[in-house]
Amino acid sequence: MHRFANPARFQRLATAILPWSAGATVVLLVVGLYFSLFASPPDYQQGDTVRIMYIHVPAAWMSLFVYTNMAIAAACGLVWKHPLADLFAKAAAPVGAGFTAICLITGSLWGAPMWGTWWVWDARLTSVLILFFLYLGYMALVNAFDDPQRGMRAGNVLLLVGIVNVPIIKFSVEWWNTLHQPASVMRMDGPTVAAPMLVPLLIMAVAFTLYFVTVVLLRLRAEIVQRRIQTMRLTQAAE
Amino acid sequence: MTRKKRRLYMLGLALLGLGTAAALTLTAFEDNIVFFYSPSDVQTRDVGDRNFRLGGLVEAGSVKKLPDGLTTEFMVTDTVNSVAVSYRGQLPDLFREGQGIVAEGTLNGARVFVAREVLAKHDENYMPPEVADAIKRAGVFKDPAKTADGMAEKAAATTVPAASQSTSKE
User: Fold this and answer.
1) Does any domain span residue A46?
2) What residues pair up with B77 in beta bridges, in sequence order?
3) N or C: which end of chain A has fewer CB within 10 A?
4) Which residue does chain A place closest to B22, by CA atoms?
5) CA A122 – CA A169 distance, rounded (Å)
6) pLDDT attached to residue B96
7) Which helix (H) or strand (E) holds A239?
8) Bridge pairing between strands B112-121 and B82-88
9) What residues in B contact A194, CB-CB < 8 Å?
10) What distance in Å separates residue B123's CA from the closest CA in chain A?
11) Total count of domains within chain A
């Protein structure tokens, strides 16, 4: 791990990975969307409305996956003071917030025809909304200090406090009565989604993950360059 | 102990404390976090004439349209207890017998739940229509205890014997 904490080595690694992850994202998104929208069967109860699932569910998974990664990076940043760990959390935050927003919006669009309502305050919907606010709060907090180091520190603490929300989101549908359905894929007794619908769902999930990898590498690269410019300006001003 | 080690332990302790606090808070507020009561909850709790949500499965063969064309009467069950529901208005597309629903309203004097809003709940099963037909033909379709997310199991576990005179099954 420590080897990749070196920004110069990271830059070389990112340059090597980026074209592959970007290409794979495009290919998988095209294939995944084709299967999701055209080459998969309608649901026996929901008909074609089920196609919202292929966007909604991967976005929801990503919202939790990205946050968990940010919290792990925050812990590394606080304990081992890795410069890249802090920057990773900062680079990933807007992407995670975007996934959460997509999850909330598509969920609302799905709820209207199926449940008969755009929004309810049940445990699942409320905890995901809190996750969205945690992302926004983190981004605001990191940028609220003149000294970027202090901003990062405060942001890392917020990320670690917010991590309690992740298991709450995941298990909300089991611990309490909710209007939201329980898990269909990540459950102990195996998925309850038929294979022709599960395959496009998983393709989309991989595509979303690769998209995240691509965008975070790009953003991290930009953050590192920006840091370098700042340091050069400071030394110049000091001379 | 190095400083890194100490920071790591502090972080671990802080997270443990935070997790415990969150778990205690959520347990304490359990009643306010549940989105709806099951028919068994309605039997065991004093709901009074308060506004609340009732969730369960629409009992098979219980749906009646009244002659005014707007009011629907049906039973909501968790397979242990049931509650009669009366609703005036348009029902969601997914509303049908055996379907999980959540209704908001109040219990009237005759222990009938007068709903102001009815929402449909869909379960975690997704399959193409042909597969659903095949399963239906095989006769193993929709075990109601398994649909509304084990609501029935939860209810069976919490029901006390005094509440066993159910209002259901005409």
Assistant:
1) no
2) B57, B82
3) C
4) A164
5) 11
6) 85
7) none
8) parallel
9) 126-128, 131
10) 5
11) 1
Residue A1 lies in a domain: no
Residue A44 domain-assigned? no
Among A residues 78-137, those touching chain B with beta carbons less than 8 Å apart:
78-80, 113-117, 120-123
The predicted complex's ipTM stands at: 0.80
Residue B92 banded pLDDT, cuts 50, 70, 90: confident
Q: State which residues form the domain around A150.
A: 18-39+51-182+192-238
In a domain, A226, yes or no: yes
pTM for the model stands at 0.86
B153: pLDDT strictly greater than 50: no
Task: Please indicate whether, in this complex, the C-beta atoms of A174 and B33 are within 8 angstroms of each other.
Answer: no
What pLDDT does residue B142 have?
A: 54
Which residue ranges of chain A lie beneath pLDDT 70? 1-5
Contact B120, B111 (CB under 8 A): no
Size of interface A-B (CB pairs under 8 A): 115
The per-residue pLDDT for B158 is 41
Whether A173 sits inside 8 A of B149 (CB atoms) is yes
Average pLDDT over residues B61-74: 87
CATH topology (fold) of B33-162? OB fold (Dihydrolipoamide Acetyltransferase, E2P) (2.40.50)
Q: Which of A143, A1, A145, A171 is nearest to A72 (CA)?
A: A1
